[in-house]
Amino acid sequence: MKNIVCVLGVTLVFGLGSAYVQAQGGASPNTLGVDVQVKAAIAKAKNPSPPATASKKNTTGKGKATLNTANTQGEDDSFWVESIDLDGDGTVEETDFLYDDEDKVLLMYDDGDFKCKGGGVGEGSLLIAVNAAGNGRGRPVGSGWYVVDLDESECKVKAAGLYGCKFDANGNATACGLATIDEKNDEIVIAEVAK
Questions:
Q1: Does pTM surpass 0.85?
Q2: Contacts 24+ apart (CB under 8 A), 76-83
Q3: Which single residue of 2, 23, 37, 188 has CA 20 to 30 Å from 163?
């Protein structure tokens, strides 16, 4: 009888260990209250083609969710507006596109509604950046990041601020949390990991 108890004890510990590994490594690290699906943004960045009607600009976004693409004074990039389901919520939005042709990064911005995890809707600025082919930093094509500017308690965040996720070429979140935009490197810095 003692051997059976011992075997069950080992099985239980192993089972808990497996659950811990799945929670830590197997699950997406996107623990933010925002549910942004980036598949449409990644698809657009695989072949960024500004239309003939595109204008010239070097910034996109609003407020904290703003990025300037000028590497040198007077440099401009292609800007246009297109309708896509930017955040993957099933609704097509008019989206601002800015293609940084020097760094090969496609930026997409929308100011509107987005889904919160666990239900509900948030409202505000959403900026997505996706690395295109030939990007100067050698990042995987389709990888990138997004940020949203949230108010306190919006999508259940504890404090107002800019929150974001980095994602891989398949759209899987790799790091999420309170974020700042690093314009020099076309990147975000996760200052505090979301819990």
A1: no
A2: 77/101, 77/102, 78/50, 78/54, 79/50, 79/54, 79/55, 80/50, 80/51, 80/53, 80/54, 80/55
A3: 23
